[in-house]
Amino acid sequence: MAALLAKSSGTGVPDLHGFTADDAIVVRGARVHNLRDVDVAVPRGKLVVITGVSGSGKSSLAFDTLFAEGQRQYIESLSAAARQYIDQIERPDVDLIEGLQPTIAIDQRVGGFGPRSTVATATEIYDYLRVLYARVGQVECFRCGTPIRQQSPEQIVEAIGRLGSGARGAGLGAREGAEEAAKAEGVKAMLLAPMVRGRRGKHDDVLSEIRKAGFVRVRIDGEVFDVERPGEIDPKRTHDIEAVVDRVVIRGRGAGLGARGAGKAGKAASDADSRLAESVELALKHGDGALIVAYAEKFADQDVWHDAVFSTKYACPKCGTNLAEIEPRTFSFNSPYGACPACEGLGKRRPLDASGVPIEDEDFEDCPACKGTRLRPEARAVRIGRKGIHEVGRMAVGDAAAFFAALAWSDAERPIAEPLVTEIARRRAFLEKVGVEYLTLDRAADTLSGGELQRVRLATCIGSGLVGVCYVLDEPSIGLHPRDNARLIAALRELQQQGNTVVVVEHDEAIVREADWIIDVGPGAGRHGGEIVAVGTPNDIAANTASLTGDYLGGRKKISRRSERRKVARSRAIVLEGASANNLQDVTATFPLGVLTCVTGVSGSGKSTLLVDTLAPAILRRLNGASNGGPRPAPFTSLRGVNLIEKFVLVDQAPIGRTPRSSPATYSGVWDEIRRVFAATREAKRRGYKASRFSFNTPGGRCEACAGQGRMKIEMNFLPDLFVPCNECGGRRFDRATLQVRFREKSIADVLDMPAEEAAAFFDAFESIHRVFASLVDVGLGYLPIGQPSTTLSGGEAQRVKLGTELARVEAGSTLYLLDEPTTGLHLADIDRLMNVLQRLVDRGNTVIVIEHHADVIAAADWVVELGPGGGASGGRVVFEGEGSGDRG
Ligand SMILES: [Zn+2]
Ligand SMILES: [Zn+2]
Ligand SMILES: [Zn+2]
């Protein structure tokens, strides 16, 4: 590696550091978004980190250039049906990309996983589980729980023989304690042909049929009678009636199956064998393929009778329920053969009204038919190690190891089961490697956080074993506690060492330091960025004084800290007691007011459950009243101190809007004011345009071809939806007449394209507009176009739009801000800036609580609450609560 990476004095073009298309992906003249016609080489087969401040152009290079072109080339290689869209797919604005490998993005969006995807299906674990259950599962009747076994008459004879050996064979349940007795005396047994199963009636016809067949005894509801004197049969009740075909004493396998009174072994034994075989055939004939063996076990000299049921058909020998053949698809909730018919395999549905129609405005609840398992009852009644496939699904990835390890296979099962279990174990190990062993196998993919989703995808890619692929990842460290970083790095390494190129957009210092090669994009954001500032090994970069990343790596810059922590007054605090949702173990936590608090802990330790699911909704309800206080909080016993705050603001990473029409401009509320600015121009007045003319939400001035969206969606059945610019307005979103109105030389569309930094200056004279954009600059979003569709913002960007909007508001005072992982997606330089903003909020008399893993944020906090010690069931406790020591984490 050293030889390859150190060839900067080689024969290639100097700006590519000696790399050529033979050993690198060579990009020439990339101009996507803010990239400034850059040339760069991405060494193939290496772990490459692209870093730089937010908005510098990292994602434009990694995703919008490398991945977009890789995807375009892939679609080009597909069928004609797919290629018809090729002309409409934007080719990235780049002169040339050479040496590009098939490219796969491992991103954080749910797209591609439907509502039916789970951790187990996404990783193919579920596919192997389905085959395992279909091939070696113990089938039970879903109505009465009787074990179902489709056997040949010969197998049945053999299984009956095992009754006599006392072995627990064939699911017959002969108890081990009876073994000695069985060997000594043999086991008394009756062979019964089931004639009536749980049916009402007097059944005279059945009794006469039994007589005609020449049998002399009959068992009615468990009691044996002479068939001529069956006693009184109540026609109003249900009955079980079997013909007693034969009575035998089973002396154990190998010892022969001696009929009652049989003497010596040898001929007598083989006579007994053939007699039993004949009786079994006879019972099956009259029992329509089913047979019951009633056999006695001795307990304290008493005979205790048990039934063992056998069938040559795929049907319950006891209640007669017919089963379809068990196949892998029986366990698929994506197939009508496996999906619960009530919820069609979703596991959830809306409550029904009296006439059985779903009530539209009710929340989804677990499907009552399948109890959320998504599966038909037939599928749930198949067991391995006493558990149904849905019960295995409820296990955490980490706990499933012990379950599979404890399974014992028969000689016949082993060759089928072991390869399947090995494949499951392999994939499980990948999930553990990426640090999500606390997730349950049946966890729905659409409920995972972006970081968790990405790590599940990463595990899937490692498991796929593909070679020669270029994987592109967007900040895989998001949401990971620093102590989980080592595992993530090992996983990225494994992917690379399989023979792939791994390109990671990342800020996390530990991962940046692990890279084989760093590409630093900058120097600033937006129009101040878009250049390749530095490339090289981590040591090269650390030594490079032109690189901001290098300044931090080399220790020349550090995240600034206040010289002293604030004084914490425990008496002025919000105290939450008895929080117990999910894995929280009766948690009590104190959040002092007027300080910066950091809540930390490993992934899955319960931080979000405590703060986002419990504390935040509980405070909102207390402040606003239960009727308009938003979602119901998760369970807790008491909450004190809410009277000490006036306002609560949750600054999370949820999108700021669900349609491409929402944007930072609309979310922050300045868009209406900007439209009024345009309506007040002389040109607008002359034409009679009101502010509504400048709306893309309502007809009047917007482009009607795209309904003001500026782009069109192309649905591709087998790939994520594609978006192409509207060919009517070319992405400008307004009609020509509206665009002719200008304010200070700019049209309304020009304004929407302005980065926040430029917009702040442009609207200098409008204090309320200026203040919002200046705040966006403060939180590090100066590069972000104010009309950028909210659906294209990262979670971190959405969060900072919310934070910036809050900052711009007139002081409310005594506000509590809760931020969920605000450093997500931030370069160290941006974190420095963000921390300054948060400290400023606290200095103004507010309280800030951040959920964070970042060591510098933990160090900057006045108060630290740490949950743990582990994730999932091994977490959920407060392991530290107290004043920040400055070096925790
Ligand atoms: Zn049954
Ligand atoms: Zn259901
Ligand atoms: Zn249009």
Write up what this structure looks like.
This protein has five domains: 2-110 and 448-553, Rossmann fold (3-Layer(aba) Sandwich); 119-137 and 326-433, ABC transporter ATPase like fold (Up-down Bundle), CATH 1.20.1580; 144-311, Ribulose 1,5 Bisphosphate Carboxylase/Oxygenase, CATH 3.30.190; 559-646 and 812-889, Rossmann fold (3-Layer(aba) Sandwich); 660-793, ABC transporter ATPase like fold. Helix 12 (397-405) runs antiparallel to helix 13, helix 13 (414-433) packs across helix 14 and helix 26 packs across helix 27 (795-808). The strands form eight sheets. A six-stranded mixed sheet has the order 5-18-19-3-20-21, sandwiched between helices. A six-stranded antiparallel sheet has the order 10-9-11-8-12-13. The chain is built from 29 helices and 32 strands. The radius of gyration is 35 Å and the shape is elongated. The chain starts with a helix and ends in a 6-residue tail after the last strand. Mean pLDDT is 86; it is low at 1-14, 167-178 and 254-263. With 889 residues, the protein is of the alpha/beta class. One zinc ion binds at residues 141, 143-144, 146, 316, 318-319, 321.
